[in-house]
Amino acid sequence: DQQVKQNSPSLSVQEGRISILNCDYTNSMFDYFLWYKKYPAEGPTFLISISSIKDKNEDGRFTVFLNKSAKHLSLHIVPSQPGDSAVYFCAASRQTGANNLFFGTGTRLTVIP
Amino acid sequence: DAGITQSPRHKVTETGTPVTLRCHQTENHRYMYWYRQDPGHGLRLIHYSYGVKDTDKGEVSDGYSVSRSKTEDFLLTLESATSSQTSVYFCAISQGGSGTEAFFGQGTRLTVV
Question: How far is CA A75 from CA A42, A49, A56, A84, B47, in A?
Fold first, then answer.
């Protein structure tokens, strides 16, 4: 039972435009969310996180939005660059108690020069 | 980059043989994790450790055991490898467990024939 879902396996975007990657979760106990980026033959790299007490967190070109009522989060990349081409994983956890990150299945982003 | 080294990076083994994967960290982080990545599943937690000799099961722990005799080393053992354990295995570390980001190693590609 996938508790974190990324329903778009792939996304293509022109360089310079906005990339929006979406993620949905089913467990209302999740209160900490993360995005990871993964290149082939490498481990996932942490990008940005957000706690459930916020609805937005920015770090440079990357912004994560959280809509708790919809159990939905999104990652915005503006402007998109060819080096952003990778697989992006959404992950969720609880801030206390459990020590597990639950991952989505990933979205492959291709930024076209 | 977080100092995490996984060994070996690639391994081919026969069904029924024991296999041990090693994760070594130089960050002195308390928490260490083993995940597996499979198509259609994202990353799933196998086992984790919250201190020397302190370990617990994750979502997909059947067929796996772990040991942590030193802060810096976390071993994953497949007692009798099966073809369903063909996967890419990632070690991760974090300072604070839940509610903190985890940093991943480069992965071990294991093929069981």
Answer: 21, 10, 10, 12, 28
Q: Report chain A residues whose CB lies below 8 A from the CB of B105.
A: 43
Q: How confident is the model at residue B102 (pLDDT cuts 50, 70, 90)?
A: confident
- The DSSP line for A27-96 is -TT--EEEEEEE-TTS--EEEEEEETT-SEEEETTEEEEEETTTTEEEEEESS--GGG-EEEEEEEE-SS
- Residue-wise pLDDT for B29-48, tens only, equals 999 999 999 988 889 999 99
In this complex, is the C-beta atom of A42 within 8 Å of any C-beta atom belonging to chain B?
yes
Which among A2, A49, A100 has CB closest to B101? A49
Q: How far is A15 from chain B (nearest CA, A)?
A: 27
Residue to mutate among A39, A101, A105, A107, with most B CBs inside 10 A, is A101
pLDDT of residue A109: 98
| Residues facing residue B13 across a β-bridge | B112
| Buried-state track B5-34, b at ≥16 Cβ within 10 A, e below 16 | ebeeeebebeeeeebebebbbeeebbbbbb
* Secondary structure class of B111 (helix, strand, coil): strand
Cβ contact, residue pair A46, B43, below 8 Å: no
Average pLDDT over residues B9-36: 96
Cβ A75 vs Cβ A48: under 8 Å: yes
